[in-house]
From TrEMBL:
Organism: Leptospira alexanderi serovar Manhao 3 str. L 60
EC number: 3.1.1.23
Family: Belongs to the AB hydrolase superfamily.
Protein name (database record): Monoacylglycerol lipase
InterPro entries: AB_hydrolase_fold, Hydrolase_4, MAG_DAG_Lipase
Length: 342
C-alpha cells in the first residue's frame, strides 16, 4: 500500500518548537498583524519546511482577495515545482472552526501527482477577517468560494477545477454545486463527512429544536459548538495539534448553527441537480456527522458517476486518522481524483 505520510514524524520535534513559538506570537494578533507575521516568520519556518521533505516539491504562496462586503479572505496555494498536469487543480473548503493550514496532509499525500492546490480560509476562520464562527448569510460562503474558484481558473488557465469540502465545507461545497450554473466550473466534486445528519442525543435534540428560534432572535450571537475534539480522530497527535492550534476556534453563531443543523432538507431536495462526477466518503464511527447522511445523499445524487466509501471504525476526519487508516483513505481518494481530473 502506498505510504502517504512520509516526513510527518521525522520532523515532529522541530515542528513542535515552531508551533509553540508561533502560537505565542499569534495569540491576540489582528488580521493585519497575522498577515505581516505570515510573511516574516523567520528561521523557524525555514527549518520546519526543510524538515518536511515533501514540501520542497511545491512553491507555497499566501494571498487574499476581497469577498462580499469587502471582507478580506485569505487563501493559500501550492504549485508543483515540476510535473504540473493540466486540469489537476484542487480547491479545498475546510470545516467549521478550522482553517486551510490543517490540510497540509492532503497536499503531502498528493505530492508527485502534478496537482495545484487552492485552499481557502472561510470568513470568520483562520487568517480571514470576520467574527469567529459567524456569517451574515450562508450565501457569503458560496460567494467567497466562487471567487476563489474564479481566481484558480484564471491563474491556472483552466475552465474547470475539482472541489473538495470537508464537514461544514462539504455542506458549502454541496450547496455551491447545487446552485445555478456553478457545476460548469467543476470537473468533479469530493465530499467528506457531509453533516446533514447528526448524532441526536438529548442535548443535540434540544439544540436542533431551538436553533431556528435563536437564529431569528439573536442571529449573530456566537456560542461554543460543544465539539468533542476526541471524536475528530483516533490519532492523539492530530487531536493535540487541533487543541493547540491558535487559528482553530470552537465558536458558531446561532444563525450558522441553525443552517448546519437543518441543512438536510435543502441539500437532499436539490441533490438530483448534481450531474458531475462525485466522490463521497465518511467514517462509519463518526460521532459528529452521522455517516447515514452521506448514504442518503448518495442515493439521491443525480450523477451517473458517483462513488460512496464508508470506512469502518473511523471517526470524523478520515483523512487525518491513524497512519494505516489515513493511508487507505488518501490512497483511495487519490486514485479516484487522478481518474477524474483529466
Amino acid at each position: 500500500m502506498e505510504e502517504c505520510s512520509v516526513g510527518r514524524h521525522e520532523s515532529k520535534k522541530i515542528i513542535s518548537l515552531y508551533e509553540t513559538t508561533e502560537k505565542n506570537l499569534l495569540i491576540g494578533m489582528n488580521f493585519f498583524q497575522m498577515k505581516f507575521f505570515s510573511l516574516f516568520k523567520g528561521p523557524f519556518v525555514f527549518i520546519t519546511r526543510f524538515a518536511m521533505s515533501w514540501i520542497n516539491s511545491y512553491n507555497l504562496e499566501d494571498d487574499t482577495f476581497a469577498g462580499s462586503e469587502g471582507t478580506k479572505i485569505f487563501y493559500r496555494t501550492y504549485q508543483p515545482k515540476e510535473g504540473r498536469k493540466e486540469n489537476r487543480v484542487l480547491v479545498v473548503q475546510h470545516g467549521i472552526g478550522e482553517h486551510s493550514g490543517r490540510y497540509e496532509f492532503l497536499v503531502e499525500a498528493f505530492a508527485g501527482t502534478g496537482t495545484v492546490f487552492y485552499l481557502i480560509d472561510s470568513r470568520g476562520h483562520g487568517r480571514s477577517e470576520g467574527k469567529r464562527g459567524a456569517v451574515d448569510s450562508f450565501s457569503d460562503y458560496l460567494s467567497d468560494l466562487d471567487k476563489l474558484i474564479e481566481i484558480a481558473r484564471e491563474k491556472e488557465k483552466v475552465s474547470k477545477v475539482t472541489l473538495l469540502g470537508h464537514s461544514m465545507g462539504a455542506a458549502i461545497s454541496t450547496f455551491y454545486a447545487e446552485e445555478g450554473t456553478n457545476q460548469g466550473n467543476l470537473n468533479a466534486l469530493i465530499i467528506s463527512a457531509l453533516p446533514i445528519k447528526v448524532k441526536l442525543d438529548l442535548l443535540m435534540k434540544l439544540k436542533k429544536g431551538i436553533a431556528p428560534l435563536m437564529a431569528d432572535i439573536f442571529p449573530n450571537l456566537t456560542l461554543p459548538t460543544g465539539l468533542n475534539v476526541n471524536h475528530l480522530s483516533h490519532d492523539k497527535t492530530v487531536v493535540d495539534a487541533y487543541v493547540k492550534d491558535p487559528l482553530v476556534h470552537g465558536m458558531a453563531s446561532t444563525y450558522l448553527g441553525n443552517m448546519l443543523l437543518n441543512s438536510e432538507e435543502p441539500i437532499l431536495t436539490n441533490a438530483g441537480k448534481i450531474k458531475i462526477p462525485i466522490y463521497i466518503f465518511h467514517g462509519k464511527e463518526d460521532q459528529i456527522a452521522d455517516s447515514a447522511g452521506s448514504e442518503v445523499f448518495f442515493e439521491v445524487v443525480g450523477s451517473s458517476d458517483k462513488t460512496l466509501k464508508i470506512y469502518e471504525g473511523l471517526y470524523h476526519e478520515t483523512m487525518n486518522e491513524r497512519i494505516e487508516d489515513r493511508t487507505k483513505v488518501l490512497t483511495d481518494l487519490k486514485k479516484w481524483f487522478e481518474s477524474h481530473a483529466n
